[in-house]
Amino acid sequence: MSALMPSLISPSRCVLLIMDDGVGVYESSSGGVEFLDLLHWREGGFEEKLSDMINRSGVSSVVIMNDAVEQHYRKEKVPVLSYFDKGNILQRRLNVAFPNYSMRAAKVLKSGSKQAREASSGDKEAVKGDLYLFAAVPSTDAFGRIMTALSNVDQQVVGYGLLPVESTGLVDELVKQLSQKRGGGGARWSILISQHRGGGLRQIVVRNGELALTRVTPVVEPDADNPGVWAADVSQELQATLSYLSRFGYTPEDGLELIVVGDTDYTEPLEGMVYAPCNYNALTVQDAASLVGIRVGRDEDHYSDSLHAGWVARKFSLELPLSSREIKAIQQPRQASLVIMMISALGLAGVAGVAVDEGMKLYSTSVNMEVAQIQKKKIEEIYAEELQRKERMGIDIPLIKGALAISRDVSNTIVNPLDVLEPIARSMEDIRLDKFEFSNIGGEPAANRKPGDVAPQRETMVLLTISFAGNINIVEGNEEINKLVTRMNERLKDMGYESKVEVPLRDTTFRGSSEVEYGITANKRRADDRYEAQIRVRRVAQNG
Amino acid sequence: MVRGLSNKVVIFILVLLALAGGGGYSVYEYLIPERERAERELSGLKAQIQAKYEEVAKMKEEFILLQSQLRDFKDLEARGFFNNQNRSEAEENFSKLNNRVGILKASLSYKPGEIVANKMAEDARQIVIRSHGDVEVESLDDVDVYTLLKYMQERYPGSIDVTKLELERVEILNAAMLRKIGGGDPVPLIKGKFEFDWRTMTANDELSAQGGGN
After folding, report:
1. CB–CB of B118 and A402 under 8 A?
2. Is the same domain home to B173 and B153?
3. Which of B145, B141, B139, B140 is nearest to B194 (CA)?
4. Is the pTM of this model over 0.80?
5. Predicted ipTM of the assembly
6. In this model, does residue A405 exceed pLDDT 60?
7. Rounded to a whole number, what is the distance in Å from the CA of A180 to chain B's nearest CA?
């Protein structure tokens, strides 16, 4: 599991440099690049040793670099393609270009494309397109053994690249830094010469920032007692390279920047053996590394494979990654697992964030609750003190409030009959009242009432009975009764009462019945009879 | 387990997923509801505190108001609003009023008293009692009945709520009637009856001591 955690948090990377003799293992981290070991192909338990070495290094990812002799390059012009067709057509062209190699890749050359476009701009018949660098390497048994070793570890596989292509940027950067130091302009052509631990001499020729040519050739091992031998050998190889360059369009007027990385004991004698016009730069591995911002071990004096490894290790992705079924079989599940791990980790972090946020809120609420409990306790104490203070003063607030409220409710509802009878009596004048009935019936004023409810409405009524002598003129009698009602209404109106004739002395309209006796005895008897009229007084005012 | 991945990578991913899933479940199933419950509780508590604060402020305000209410309360007390409606005392009171007015005849009857449910009275540890009374009267003059009613309303403890009043002139005052009255025979000229509800408040425990209640 230790290899998993760094894969999420550490940028450390292992570089496997495939050489003809074996594979060089390098560890690159924030502390710099370190050569771990060179495992020869013939070594017993190669795969286990390599797996173990990668695991022990604690790196998060592995990048494989091919620095062997057998690398195949070709520059081809490809017509301008749509985004969707590009992949298929390039694959087809690669198949045609390298039918016998399973690991292939293509990369558009920017400056080459520009030149191709400029050249074809005037020629209508010329096919417009981009210049591509096609590359391929064979799928060897050695590569298969590395894949076996990688399948036993959990590190991410960044990809499989070609060292000359990936180190083109290194050459460019070195030339740029050296030109700045020297204060002059950069040449169009640059050659980086460096010897690697496998014994090969790697030459990378760059024109206008793009790989033009690369060679790896065996040279003698440096001999401290006789440094000139190495220089002479390298000088011959350089001459061979320069002879190739003329075929690529090199002329001395273009300018040539020559960078030789190695121990000064061997690189200084070389200067005298270079006859081509160039800016000769001899750098130690330490100097070259510091120029491009890479830290290499102090014991790195001559072999510069660590410099290339450090340069490649800090790339986020390869410039020309070679693809094959074997690499995809390891790379894709690990990339998917990394994505899943990242998403899960993000999810976990999100959940943790929400949990912390909620936890803080809960904690804050709990603290506030404690404060609120204290406040509640205090206010209840104040309330109790206030009550006690009033009780000590002999004031029973609920009793006072309750008694006054109940008394007020009762007073507002009940009706004093004398208050109604008094204006009636004043209105009577000389009319005699024989009988009256007063009633005030309705809801209970002291009963519970909802807040806002008005006092219960009652039916308040007075029925007055008035009699007249039997010999009275009925019409005049009725008029008297009507006048009485008018007088009463004048007095009762403001009190909210209304009076009206309930029963007249006699109904003289067609609705009334009539039975009259005539004669002397009848007249005498009629004087003793009495006519009765009734007036009803009702309370019409509404409560509230 | 999965092609191209070692078991420990798969287990690590599963653990991560389980942690994220379990954590998410716990957060949304327990932590968030718990926080919401706590916030609701806090909100309720704050509302209670606010209400109590307002009550205390109101009490202090009322204390000033109570100074004036206290006078009304004393008046109410003086008018005998707090009375347990003891029947013998009530009868004696009525008798005194009747003697003072000089009614020819007055018969009084009370129905059993009732307790009127009232929350404010309960809060004050009191109850409201209501007794329904019937009075039948005979008098020489209707004014005597009115006077009796007035006295009852003014001097009876508590509140008298007259619900019915009927008066009828049964005789007309003439020379023969005057002679009869002058002869010492009190002939009623007015007959009537009235009904009333008598309401007072009394302490709850006092009623319990008397063995009353609903």
Report:
1. yes
2. yes
3. B145
4. no
5. 0.71
6. yes
7. 48
